[in-house]
Amino acid sequence: MNDQDKKRLFVLDTNVLMHDPTSIFRFQEHDIFLPMVVLEELDKGKKGMSEVARNVRQVSRFLDELMSGASKQEIDAGLPLPTPSNGKSVEPMVPGRLYFQTTTLANNLPTSLPGNTPDNNILSTALTLQQAHPELDVVLISKDINLRIKAAVVGIPAEDYYNDQVLDDVDLLYSGEAELSSDFWESHSKDLDSWQEEGRTFYRIKGSDTQEWYPNQCLFLDDETNFEAIVRRRDGDDAIIEMATDYRSQNHAVWGIRARNREQNFAINMLMDPEVDFVSLLGTAGTGKTLLALAAGLTQTLDLNIYREIIMTRVTVPVGEDIGFLPGTEEEKMTPWMGALMDNLEVLTQTEGGEWGRAATDDLLRSRIRIHSLNFMRGRTFLKKYIILDEAQNLTSKQMKTLITRAGPGTKIVCLGNVAQIDTPYLTETTSGLTYVVDRFKDWNHSGHITLLRGERSRLADYASDTL
């Protein structure tokens, strides 16, 4: 029997269960082994209102359901795991089994790993299983990179938990725009229809290349024409595209802000479109994500009365040491985390009229902008609100779902973030909630996405980002 024919036995680390409570159901026909130290760590982590504590309690409920009514002999023989049906397999899959550590296992760790830490305990368990069951391919699954390194050193195959990975590589993430070929007009001139409605220009395009387009995808020609359009509808080989509004000109400035590059222009087009309920903007620091989202929100809230107010929120993950408890109301506690909001409001409130004029404008804007913590979003419903979620790359896919499902009628959600700047443990570029929603929403007619490429802060910031 070669290694590929061996049945696999996965030893799960505690952090996998804390990260995804449903992970015990994600290994298809393979078996799972839970060391006793993992159950002890779950018991220690069950208290509190954090996302991790909630996940631990959910794991405990799953395990309790699986063990319900099972005898000691049945537990020793392994509990059959239900396999979620994906509708693809013709034959029913043989379910894997869940094994618990029911006896004390010998310590087979090398003397170079002294001590009785939980990590070493898990390694010792995996080594004992490997020696006791040579017919099985024993693999340790952990989100802890250091434990995976130690496992490799002592000869245990170790892998990350990949089931929640949206993409194999973040470079494959949908960018939101596509460049048209230089002969685009010549190759589509025969079957081309064009018309105008309420000052907007539309084209009906036919051809096989339209099958690769997504709703609200941004199309452009990189030539002297600077043609920019947005896909409005796609049906088979037919697609209707609309000429993008040029927000670079002063006539189309949004709250005094003009687009400085093509991606910013596409972003404002989507932010100002009431038919687009969900917009995601990716980009590094200084690309204008927060400024554009705020300017579009203020225009549609104060000038056009499409939304009642702007709600701004973000994940409170400190970059340095935590500064401890903060006094005041929810809004006052969140204010130190909202430096980006305050900085951008300064740019947007450069009004004439001296100090009094600026103070009056600040009071008006702050009366229509609410700052909320993500901790209090559960159970709420937002009606006709313009919600800006900053630093969205630090959310898990489950947290992202919790937030987006708060949206009531007439609400627009704008997610901002940079997947290269994740501050949350156990989240990566390919497992971030922001990556998740960008990938899952790209086929929906009422969502839009664009990746901002150019920083527009200052020549100093541009030089620093290039050379440092």
Automatic annotation (TrEMBL):
Alphabetical keyword list: ATP-binding, Nucleotide-binding
Superkingdom of the source species: Bacteria
InterPro entries with a match to the protein in the record: P-loop_NTPase, PhoH, PhoH2-like, PIN-like_dom_sf, PIN_dom
Molecular functions per Gene Ontology: ATP binding
A single GO cellular-component term on record: cytosol
Record's keyword annotation contains Ribonucleoprotein: no
Annotated ranges, domain PIN: 8-149
Gene3D superfamilies membership: 5'-nuclease, P-loop containing nucleotide triphosphate hydrolases
CDD domains tied to this protein: PIN_VapC_PhoHL-ATPase
Pfam families linked: PhoH (PF02562), PIN_4 (PF13638)
Signal peptide: none
Sequence similarity: In the N-terminal section; belongs to the PINc/VapC protein family.
Annotated protein name in UniProt: PhoH family protein
Organism: Sedimenticola selenatireducens
Source organism phylogeny: Bacteria, Pseudomonadati, Pseudomonadota, Gammaproteobacteria, Chromatiales
